[in-house]
Design a protein that fits this description.
By secondary structure, this protein is mainly β. A five-stranded mixed sheet has the order 1-29-30-31-32, with no helix packed on it. Strands 2-35-34-33 form a four-stranded antiparallel sheet, with no helix packed on it. Strands 3-4-5-6 form a four-stranded antiparallel sheet, with no helix packed on it. The longest helix has 23 residues.
Length: 434
């Protein structure tokens, strides 16, 4: 082809390409639509930022996690909006009742009783009953269930390991066992707090299939001769922290064991008066030193058990403090929510709340933290309040009268919702986001 022919062809191809590009380029939107498009982009960016700030953090065990911080990474601000309520169905002539709920990514597992038998009810996040486990035994101590290693575990008149999808019993370790359960990601860590005719009191580890690995603190000679009134368990890395208060046997104190083999790492002879919470290299709990009349909030070094500081206060609950954003928070005897500095043990603020209405469910909690929104949801008499974790100011107060019937307790924050027990059933409330 001649240079002249080639040049003409190039000009033709260039014109065609420009025409195609013009045809494929969208028209610029009018100014009004441009504004709407920018608003849409901003809304999507805000939604992503909110999701990152407020993750759908589950609440799989008592006090949220193995450290027992009592705090979700998610958000919960007021107003709290009623969603649904669940009442456990009876098995005539036996009636049913709920005690405490934990939450996985897509289900709730609620401990309770059918008649006198410790039971578990699995619910969808929309409140639909998925399955029911009925132990058919007869003594409950109102233990919390645990969702660990993709299984549901209840240690309430027997240690029951259940298939989380169907509720079928995989393992039954026998009758007469009560206490907390958690996991180090490999095995189950558990305690028995009452010797009757089953295992003696103990703290130990079991394989996911229920086979025992190690045990310590075994007490009991004759039926009902010893009870651990607390049985607090928490993990600090590879250390299992244990706070028993035995009666009448000796052995009360705070202990650290290697979770892998049970080797004792340290012990402190004291009388625990609450469960444990761990944050970083410090463990927090209420203790009553020998000879002292009142308990004290104590911070101890995780590695050695040495006391870091103490704060004189009379706690209103046996459940542990919550640890959040540099603060250790607890309810005092009068119901007030008190925050002290995590590193110093000096008071930051004091919120005058009323004690939760008296109930008969053991191990009930009265507050839950939400780190994403920097808030604490607490029971205030018959009501719920949302407080700022920074200064203790009440941001919202109310009671979900349309779905709540009894005294509220054991609140947990998960999936942008607050779940609480109201005496017999469970209520679900939507949290407002920041």
């Amino acid at each position: 082809m001649s240079d002249c022919g080639r040049s003409a062809l190039e000009r033709i191809l260039g014109v065609c390409c420009m025409a195609l590009m013009a045809a494929c380029t969208p028209d610029a939107p009018p100014k009004r639509l441009r504004g709407e498009a920018l608003v849409g982009v901003g809304a999507r960016a805000g939604s992503v930022a909110s999701s990152l700030r407020c993750p759908a953090d589950p609440w799989p065990v008592y006090a949220h996690d193995a450290q027992r911080t009592g705090v979700s990474a998610g958000c919960c601000k007021g107003p709290l909006t009623p969603l649904w309520r669940f009442d456990p169905p009876p098995k005539p002539p036996r009636t049913s009742r709920l005690h405490h709920a934990v939450v996985s990514a897509n289900a709730l597992y609620v401990s309770g009783v059918i008649g006198d038998s410790p039971s578990v009810f699995a619910l969808s996040l929309a409140g639909k009953l998925l399955w029911t486990f009925d132990s058919h035994v007869d003594i409950t101590r109102h233990e919390w269930p645990s969702f660990v290693l993709d299984r549901v575990v209840l240690n309430d008149d027997g240690l029951y390991i259940l298939d989380s999808r169907k509720g079928e019993q995989e393992v039954n370790r026998g009758l007469d066992s009560w206490g907390q359960v958690l996991t180090n990601g490999k095995n189950l860590l558990a305690t028995n707090t009452w010797y009757i005719a089953g295992p003696k009191t103990y703290v130990g580890a079991l394989e996911a299939g229920g086979a025992p690995l190690w045990k310590h603190h075994e007490y009991g000679v004759v039926r009902e001769d010893v009870m651990d009134r607390l049985g607090g368990l928490a993990l600090a890395g590879e250390r299992l922290l244990f706070a028993p208060d035995y009666a009448p046997s000796k052995g009360a104190g705070v202990y650290a064991h290697a979770s892998a083999d049970g080797a004792e790492l340290w012990r402190v002879e004291t009388i625990p008066k609450s469960h444990i919470a761990v944050d970083g290299q410090t463990v927090y709990l209420f203790e009553r030193p020998e000879g002292e009349a009142l308990p004290t909030l104590v911070a101890r070094d995780v590695a050695t058990g040495a006391k870091r500081w103490s704060f004189r206060a009379d706690p209103g609950e046996l459940t542990g403090p919550i640890v959040m954003q540099g603060k250790v928070m607890f309810r005092d005897k009068g119901g007030a929510l008190v925050a002290v500095r995590r590193n110093e043990g000096t008071e930051i603020w004091h919120a005058g709340l009323a004690p939760a209405e008296p109930g008969d469910v053991a191990w009930s909690t009265s507050m839950a933290g939400a780190r994403g929104s920097s808030t604490v949801v607490a029971v205030d008499g018959k009501e719920l309040v949302v407080l700022s974790a920074e200064g203790g100011q009440v941001q919202w107060r109310g009671r979900p009268e349309s779905i709540a019937r009894g005294s509220l307790h054991s609140p947990v924050v998960a999936a942008g919702r607050l779940f609480a027990i109201d005496g017999a059933g469970l209520v679900a409330l939507a949290c407002a986001r920041p």
